[in-house]
Amino acid sequence: xxxxxxxxxxxxxxxxxxxxxxxxxxxxxxxxxxxxxxxxxxxxxxxxxxxxxxxxxxxxxxxxxxxxxxxxxxxxxxxxxxxxxxxxxxxxxxxxxxxxxxxxxxxxxxxxxxxxxxxxxxxxxxxxxxxxxxxxxxxxxxxxxxxxxxxxxxxxxxxxxxxxxxxxxxxxxxxxxxxxxxxxxxxxxxxxxxxxxxxxxxxxxxxxxxxxxxxxxxxxxxxxxxxxxxxxxxxxxxxx
Amino acid sequence: xxxxxxxxxxxxxxxxxxxxxxxxxxxxxxxxxxxxxxxxxxxxxxxxxxxxxxxxxxxxxxxxxxxxxxxxxxxxxxxxxxxxxxxxxxxxxxxxxxxxxxxxxxxxxxxxxxxxxxxxxxxxxxxxxxxxxxxxxxxxxxxxxxxxxxxxxxxxxxxxxxxxxxxxxxxxxxxxxxxxxxxxxxxxxxxxxxxxxxxxxxxxxxxxxxxxxxxxxxxxxxxxxxxxxxxxxxxxxxxxxxxxxxxxxxxxxxxxxxxxxxxxxxxxxxxxxxxxxxxxxxxxxxxxxxxxxxxxxxxxxxxxxxxxx
Lengths: 240, 309
What we know:
heterodimer, A: 240 residues, 11 helices, globular, B: 309 residues, alpha/beta, Alpha-Beta Plaits, six-stranded mixed beta sheet, four-stranded antiparallel beta sheet, 14 strands
């Protein structure tokens, strides 16, 4: 566990040293703040003291920002050869993958913590449902974790960060949009399958404050699959 | 901690990078790993360090199998990979601290070891600089420092003196020699004099197989048992001297040395005292043996012989 934390800490420091973290935080907060408070179906139009406007905006902004966070995690190590250095230390492939995953989760977590004043502001002007709000944050965090694990796998496949970004974005697009669109056009088993795979199906349910085990299983399954595939991608160097 | 390699093989697709090699390296021994590019040196080193999985055979470190306990054994190994990859965005001191943490160095020992490594590798003035700002030579020192940070019993160094200036090379060789007294060191290099200066034993690998294993001295003896001397004989013309020398028992060939009139390179079969024979020949003929220099087979020639045929 110590090795996981050491790797995660280095990655988080690297995010902040390379300005990636600052740029993403400013863009995320600016983007979500603008659409939550100032533009379109903003928080004042809903007529209720809730953060649905923010959660809907963050649902999209995080979707685009996460591939930008994850693209370098393993692709850069592959390119510079530091992966060899890392994997010959007293760490396992799994610890490296989990450490990198944790670092990206921490960065997204920091971004979400900076939006907590939104909740306190809304709570000061109306009766905010704190349970539903916390569920909204939980859904954003779980959605982010899912896309981080997908992005990490994409990053493990290549030494080119742009390729990693595009693979991650395309895979994310399937969960974010494609499966939802297919679910609307299919009936029976196929329709149910696509609906089950759709991110919005599970995100909407959880962000409204309904904690359903099926949603949790969905998010944890994607996270586990992404991490295992990334680990396999590292381990396959051992295969002849 | 000894390293024992038994019938180690590794295949990349159809190509066999390492083909059933076996050797042993004892504690306190520095072994030079030589071979042309693509011979299988780095692949073997990567398998010892646990970066690459073992194809066939096994590697034993202190009688523990790398195949079975690879992850556990990593903490006993310090590794400087080829091309010395480093996190260029990190300051030297932070990087060494990161490596120490990864190797599980206890917190109370960490700062002491970092200071020691910075001192040993001469990074005092550069310790707060980012690695990306350092010259190649200093980066190489950082690579060596990270390999030794946890005081490993085994050091695997893939071309450790690449990019260093002659002064640094001498310092690093000295450091490796000192470390080699208590540790097991395997180093690969293309600089053959370096192997002679640093290593107790030489392993030459070609096309995945070990083609030579021994000290520089024993390799010389194995490669050519002939004795060669360069002689300058005065008192007669070169043709007469050559004919006279060829009459002596055991003399295989006498060749003029290019650009040095009067000088001859004389080759004798194994077991013949060439110096004594030259001296006696000169005395008998009333010539003056003005110069007689033994010529050693160069390691480069041995290397070429073993890897080109």
